[in-house]
Every structure is written in C-alpha cells, then in structure tokens.
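Table S2 (continued). Query chain:
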Amino acid sequence: MQLSLHARLPAEDAAQRVLFASPDQGAGTLGNAPLSAAIYPGGHFRSEAPVARRLAHLDSLPSRKGLQEFLRHENAFAPLAPEQRANLDAAGNRHAVFMLTGQQPGLLGGPVLWYYKALTCAAIAREWSVRLGRPVIPIFWVAGDDADLDECNHVELLDRRAADVRGPLRLSFPDEVRPLAMGERRVDPDGMRDLLKGLEAIWNPEIVEQFRRAYPVPSTMSSGFLRLAQAQLGREGILFVDGYSRNLRALARPVLESAISDWESWQDALRKGTASAFAAGIPAQVELREGVVHAFALRNGERHRLFAEKKSSREILYTPDRPNHDIRAGLAGTELTHDVFSRSLVAESIFPVLGHVLGPAELRYFAQLAPLFLQATGDMPLLQPRMTAAVAPAEAFESFLSEGMDLPEVIRFGPAALRARLTERVWRHHPASTALSAGPADRWLEGLRKAHARHFKDAGPLERLEKSLNLSWKRYLRSLEKAAYSATAQSRQGLFDQLRWLGNGMGQDRHLNLGSLMNGLGKDGMAKLRELVDPVSAELQVFKYGGG
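Corresponding output:
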C-alpha cells in the first residue's frame, strides 16, 4: 500500500486559535489577561512553562491511593499489550501523571475521530514522559454513561459501494426511548450478526471478523467499543477507563455531591466562563439552563438529569420525570453519575491530570468550564487539540485535478458548492457561453435608449425595463447552465462519490467509520498511516493512498 502526505491545511477553529494565541500576534486581552490565558488558563504543550506550573501544582497534592489497582480493574476486560503493561506498572509510581482523552461508545467504533484522539494522547504522553523523566500515562475514557442512543447507535458509511449494504446500519433495541446508559445497552446477537453480514458486501472478511470478535455474547455498547479500541490501541500503551464502571462512580461521588450542594455557584462560574468565551469569539457548546445540577441520578440504569429549585423557604432536588418528588431525603441511596461539565472534575479527583486531548466541541466547552475548574481545584490542566486527517485514494486526486481543483481545496466543499463549481466550469467551456455572453441591455436596448432620451426626460420607465430584462436574462442563463451541466452530470458522478468519502465537505474524521478506513487502507496502509501522521499537529493532514 502506497501512502503519502499530500498537504497540511491550517485549522479554522476559533477555540483553537484562541488557545494558541500569543500577545506578540496581536491576539488581544480579556480583562487584564492575555486572551489565551484568560480563556484557557491551563495553557498548552507548545511551551514548557505551563507544564512546569502544572507539575508543581500536582506535586503539591496528596498522592492518589489505589490508582494502580483501579486501572488494573478497569483494564481487565482483555489481555494487555506489553506497552500497556509497562504503563500499568508505571501507574504505581508516585511521580506518574496522566494524559486524558475519550469518546462515547459508537456502534462499531463510530466516527474515526476517536482513533485520532487516542493517537494524539499517546504521542503527547510519550514525548513528555521522555522530556520530564517521569511517567506520563495516556488514558482513554469511554463514556459508557452516555445515554444518547441516536448518536451512538449508527454506522455511517462513506464507502462508494455503501448502497450495496442491505438492512439498517444500526441495532434494534426494544426500549429505545429509555435513557439507558450505553453500559446498560445489551447488544442483540442476532442484530449484530445481521449488521455484520450486510457489511460483508463492502468490507473485507478479515475486517468484519475483527468487529465480530469485539462483540462476543453477551456484550453492551460500551464493552464492544472497549474491545475494539483495545485491539487498535493496545500497542500505543493506552489504558482505558469506563465512565459507567461501578468503581469509577464510587470515586466520583464526592465531586457529584459537591455539584448538587453547590449547584448555584457552579452555574454562576459556568455563566462567567460562557460569557468570556463568547467575548473571545467562541460560541457556547453547551447551553446553560436554569436550575440545572451537573449530575445525573441513575435508576435501573436510566440516566435522569437533576434539577434544583427554591420553593418558599426550602430547596428541592428533582428529576423531570418526577417534578414534585424531592429526592434530597433519599440522596444517600441514589446512584449518581457525571455530566459533560462535571466529568473533567471527576477525572481530576481520580488522576493527577497533566492535560486533556480535545476535539473542537470539547475545546469550546472547556472554555465555558475554566472558571469553575479554577474555583473547584485551584489550577487547570493543559489542553491539546486532537490531530485530524483526511485520507483519499489517488483516483480522487486525479479526478478533481482533471476538473481544475486540487483535493485540499475540495475538502472544504459541500455537495452544493461542488455542483456550482462544476456547473460554472461546464458552462465556461460550452459554445453557447461565448455566444450569449453579452447582456440584453447591451444588445437590444441601445436604440431604445436613444429614442427614449429624445422624447422623455423621465428615465424611470426605461430603468425599470432594463432591471426586469437583466433579471430575466440571468434566470435564462442559469437555466442554460443547468441544462449544459445536466448533459454531463452522469460522467461526474464519481466526483460526488469521492466527495462523499471525504465527508461531503464536513470533515471525514467526524463521519468515516473505522472499518471503512481499515478496508480502504488495508493492514499495511493502517500501519503506514500511524507512521506518517503527525499526532500533535493542529493542522488538517491530507493523505493519498494507492496509485502508481
């Protein structure tokens, strides 16, 4: 498999620009602080000073008891690779610190972005472990507590032959409306068998078999994802944590009780962070609602958002399905789990976290979170954007180049923009384009203008006629352009197939399933990709595979 890096494209994410901004770039300030420090006070890994500051803070804290045993239990679901065993041994070192990243457990892995997150996390951990002379251990946090079944339970296929797959690209659950955590979602063996059988139409048998092994009977959405991630990432030395495990929920309890008792101060801090981020050009990723408590109650595996409300002289704590039932009296017996904001504080209470690897959406809500994090812990971890890549076959490069477009340019396109570009190009080369280039006012109205000026001082009627005629002329030309393109559209269907593979201009890594990438590159290509990618780059890396 031939694979090569074709281009690096600059990031276009506002939060990332703020994170890496520096005063000498004219980035501005917020209050009395440089913009980056005001929004992301933890800093990033491009400078040693934030790393030193963070380590000093972590070293001032009491050591975390039982952390190695906790990780041993969390990673007992599959045999460990040698690199993982080494990191598990290092987790017992009192100087060990941790890099965290994670994702919800998508069906058959979900979009490949989680894989790129993990490669970034492992690379940062390796680099700084060497530079610091102390263990930096990568952790992948699988959000088994996530209850968004619609988001987790689908396989998006960008493959050219996706239409050949028969049957639904999702699993059927008898209780889909229940807000069950993914760690409670039992995978139907017959449904998984049928799904994989359908994928055999486009994926190589060995790839389908890898997914089949990841979902033995019994499996949940979380356990299947964990086995799949372990098979891909074990040699990276990454250790795993299940956000729904009982051990983790027990360790998280003090943070979640604080989220309940201090819910008003939490909301105030989050409002402050959200306003500061907005002032810096970063839109809110998570909407702040009145009365929200940043914890969930668990009942029979169902996740129910907690709300607080002051009524007369007392305060009640309730879930929306039981708005009149105050659960404070029975809170000690209520299982709790975290939400998007409390999760990082839970992680902070369990691990000495050096930093987090985040996607664009997570960078935005970490900007909202910063004041709360400082209020609760006194310091903030460093942040690192995940790597991102687009991988395309050589024929895609050739197809677009034949139309006068380079692939990096096309990656920014959606279907409508591509069709407009092709329509324009077809019309520009059509003989009618030259013959009809002059507008009607130039061709038809010259004599009328002279006659009108000779007999009338009011030019309004003529101007209205010219305006109407020009508008009609533009509509006429657009119709001709579409007619010319329609005559050639079938020959350009391959371009839209290639654009679909690239994520329709919306980001391949947010839509492409890992199995599709594995099938396109093959085993050798996947190994080559891991060798060629720059996991700590903030740019979009465009790769070409196949061809001569």
